[in-house]
Amino acid sequence: MNRADYMAALRRALSVLPEEERANALRYYEEYFDDAGPENEAKAIEELGEPAKVAAQILADYRELTAVPHAQPIKEKRRWRGISPLLLIVLVLLAIPIGLPLVFGAGATVLGVLLAIVVTVLAVIFAVLLILYGIPLALICGGAVLALLSCTLWATPANALVTLGNGLAAFAAGILLGLLSIKLSILFVPPVFRAFVAVLRAPFNWIRNRCRRTGGGNV
Q1: CB 170: neighbour CB atoms within 10 A?
Q2: pTM above 0.85, yes or no
Q3: Contact, 112 vs 140, CB < 8 A?
Q4: Are residues 122 and 192 located together in one domain of the fold?
Q5: In the chain, N or C: fewer CB atoms in 10 Å?
Q6: Are residue 112 and residue 196 in the same domain, yes or no?
Q7: Does 116 lie in the same domain as 200?
Q8: Same structural domain, 66 and 124
Q9: How many CB atoms are located within 10 Å of the residue 29 CB?
Q10: For 40-190, where are the E strands, in sequence order?
Q11: pLDDT, tens digit, for every residue of 113-146?
């Protein structure tokens, strides 16, 4: 038997292997013969042994390797089958006194954080609106008061004119700032309100999406 006959017999004996595994095994023995050289071909065949025995060893190694990944799941399945349903019920009942306070505590914490966010955002919005509309309103009211007060100062026309001018200036400034505040409110209040609503809805949307994914995975 020469190298070609040996490799042909080994190829036939390994025909049950997947193509990739068979090619890897044959490549190893081809390289073995290449390293030995043509002058040592007979000696290499003698060292390797019969092709059938070599193939049997390769197949045994392959079956052992492919059987390893299945060992752990089988053990896990048997372990869970060994648990009594009564024991599971007892464990659940024992976990309820511990689990319920934790669940309620986590829920109260989340609600407290949400409430703090809501109060903070509302306070900021109220402060901004107070500044936007409070200053113009104060200028308008102050200007009107100064204009009315100037009517009582005509005994000294100079003072009356200065007071009237200041009042009209304050009134005009209040009107301009009021118009600017209205413009800013139209531009920024709707987006801020939508962002605020989106922040409040985010936790509920997250919970709803998780419930949908969980339900979809169980179907």
Answers
A1: 20
A2: no
A3: no
A4: yes
A5: C
A6: yes
A7: yes
A8: no
A9: 19
A10: none
A11: 878 888 888 888 888 888 888 899 999 999 899 8
Pair (123, 183) in one structural domain = yes
Distance CA 160, CA 106 (A): 67
Distance CA 135, CA 138 (A): 5
Amino acid at position 61, single letter = D
Output DSSP code: residue 155.
Answer: T
Residue ranges making up the domain that contains 30: 3-77
Helix (H, G, I), strand (E, B) or coil at 113: helix
Rounded Cα distance between 26 and 6, Å, is: 11
| Backbone torsion region of residue 37, taken as left when φ is above 0, otherwise alpha when ψ lies between -120 and 50, otherwise beta | left
Contacts of 32 (CB under 8 A, 6+ apart): 44, 48
- The pLDDT score that the predictor gives to residue 98 is 80
pLDDT of res. 208: 78
Distance (Å, whole) CA 195 – CA 204? 15
The first and second tokens of residue 148, run together, are: 């009315």
Instruction: Indicate the Cα dihedral angle 81, 87, 90, 91, nearest 10°.
Output: -50
Average pLDDT in the 23-27 region?
A: 89
Q: What is the pLDDT of residues 61-73, one digit of tens each?
A: 888 887 644 445 4
Q: Evaluate whether 45 touches 3 at the Cβ level (below 8 Å).
A: yes
- Is residue 85 in some structural domain? no
The domain tally of the chain equals 2
